[in-house]
Amino acid sequence: MHHFCGRICNRLFSIRTVLLAAAIGALLFAASSKPLRAETDCLSCHSDQTMQDAAGHSIGVDGKKFASSLHGSLTCGQCHTTITDYPHPDQVTPVKCETCHADQAAGLAGSVHSVKAEHPCTSCHGDAHSIFPKDDPRSAVYPLNVPTTCGTCHGNDALAKKHGLPNIYPMYIDSIHGFALSKEGLLVAANCQSCHGSHNILSHTNPASATYKANIPKTCGTCHAGITADYSNGVHGKAVAAGNMHAPVCSDCHTAHAILQPTESEFRMQSTPICGSCHTDKLSTYRDTFHSQLGSLGGYVETARCWDCHGAHEILPASDPRSPVAPANLVKTCGRCHAGANASFVQYQPHANARNRKLNPALYFIRLFMNLLLAGTLTFFVIHTILWLIRSRYDQIKKRSAEGKNNA
Amino acid sequence: MPDLEQAAIGSNEQSHAPDHSVARFFTRFTRAQRYLHAVLFTTFLGLAATGLPMRFSESFWARKFASAVGGFGAIIFFHKLCAVVLTVAFLIHLKDIFQRGIVNREKGVFWGSNSMVGNWKDVKDLFCHMRWFLGLGPKPKFGRFAYWEKFDYWAVFWGMIVIGFSGYAMWFAPFFARFLPGWALNAVLVIHSEEGLLAILFIFSIHFVNTHLRPDSFPMDMVIFTGVESEEEFKKKRPEEFAKLEAQGKLQSRIGQEPATWLINFSRVAGTIAIAIGLILLALTLSAYFRE
Question: Do A377 and B178 touch (CB under 8 A)?
Fold first, then answer.
């Protein structure tokens, strides 16, 4: 207490302020006997949590919390450089974080969040007086807190609409990454900044962006190194590496934010149309097969999807002897589901086109015969039955009229 | 000829004021045949209800139905279950025919007026029947089994073999692949689904109307449930058979019991449910078929 009073006596204060400060100081002392590391003379006023400036912004500071924060060793004047006296000057310059954090500020200035008024440092790092290191669970940018922090804006429908962006947060939080992070508390689970970076976030249309299409395999490969190696050996990876941007990268099949566990039925149900969005001819012939007919029904969904036969990441053409759909490997590939598959069994065509006479003549004529049988039988009997109905009804009405009955 | 006199009296009375106290009932189907039909239509409804969602798996109702019953695992299980029961019923029927026609050398199983095998009269009846539809001739006098009934029978017979064989070929594909070429495995699905579709469309529209819903039988022909029909119905629907039995003096041998009220009520409920399910499935099939 003597320390507190001694410092105060050096400055000019009105009686009222002194009394107020003394009262607050006494309260603080009563709450904790530890000495305050922050400048207690500022806190003598600003510890009032209800304090506001002329514009209505809170200018109260929790001295205790600040003292334990990352910047707790700094004095107020080191950031609030223009406030040196009391009464304070009329014009106060905003705090310049870039004075110390020049690299981060430069990154931010070139990023999608460059409009400073809309994206002050505090919008992500939280209250300036309670910033904690990013490995501290209290930090707004602690891995497990990042999605919530970004979600403040990117989980807001109105803001998403204003900027023409999708509302990302709900998609992410229900994804396999979001689940690992929010439910399992996995620090290694990808959070927003794992893929997008933090200060230097660039639009996915910018070739320098980690989320630019050509860079996505590398970005995902930061964690999924093994899968990325497989992918790079496959036809899709090779095509993307060769500059063919029609070929899919990770996010084209798995989506960017709503990533699902691939072995679960929800992903198995949606994976086929994803492949089919490019391979339309293969999708339509697949749709004709029993694999698709059963698989579309959902529930227990272990019927073959595209990647059950073709592989998922290291997709190779049938002409490659390493491919699971290479003729020599078919007995093994089909045999994974069909116990007892033999050389004749694998002659089955999973993409046969019964509508194509040149490709599948036998199937074409069988289908034609069955369709003619169906159409012929039904046409004859529909005519037969309609005529019969008309005639029977006619007789019935005539008979009842003769008997003087109602014809209803 | 007491039969003849009694029949004539009954006929006159019934045509104006049906009198159940003197009405006679004649057996048309044996108990085994009625059970066969019951097993057939129950399993057929089951096969249709589970087969259609697979055939039209992209339609709006297929996935809803599948998830309601427990996914495709449940659908295929019930489909196979119904298939096995129907196969057993079909094999029992084949054994019965073999027993009657080959072992016991019973006459008229494979030919004649009581046989299901088609003959020249059926061709004539078809022609005359169509002529009668257009008002160009008299109504033909049908025998024990009319041509459309024989068609129904052989359509099911052919369907059993074709759908059954193609179905088992898919079920046990690796086994069938030992003696079938690879492309046959593609063909069996086309055959199974097209023939199944034909069976469904035929039974739920043509068979329903021809046998149950047409004015003469509306709302349903109870004879397949009760096994017997009234003398009036017998004479009206199968005059040739009635006349033949009368002439041979065999009418008495076909006299049956008047069906019990519970049996009639039970049959009405079961038959109405079956027809209702069939008509719903028909509507869903047509909606999916024309949307494809």
Answer: no
Record: contact B190-A354, CB cut-off 8 A = yes
- Specify whether the CB–CB gap between B183 and A358 falls below 8 A: no
Question: Within A311-360, where are the H helices?
Answer: 330-335
Burial letters A264-286, b for 16+ CB under 10 A, else e: eeebbbebbebbbeebeebbebb
**Same-domain check for residues A3 and A76:** yes
How many whole angstroms separate alpha carbon A108 and alpha carbon B168?
A: 66
Q: Tokens representing B156?
A: 């099911």
Per the domain annotation, does B119 fall within a domain? yes
Q: Please count the structural domains in chain A.
A: 3
* Closest alpha carbon within chain A to B191: A370
Residue A299 — pLDDT band, cuts 50, 70, 90?
A: low
Q: What ipTM is given for this predicted complex?
A: 0.88
Q: Is residue B65 part of a domain?
A: no
**Domain stops at, among A201, A225, A245:** A201
Say which residues have a Cβ less than 8 Å from residue B258's Cβ, sequence separation at least 6. B20, B23, B25, B228
User: For all residues of chain B together, what is the average pLDDT?
Assistant: 89
State the amino acid at position B234 in one-letter form. Answer: F
Q: Do B63 and A297 lie within an 8 Å CB cutoff?
A: yes
Domain count, chain B: 1
0.90 surpassed by pTM: no
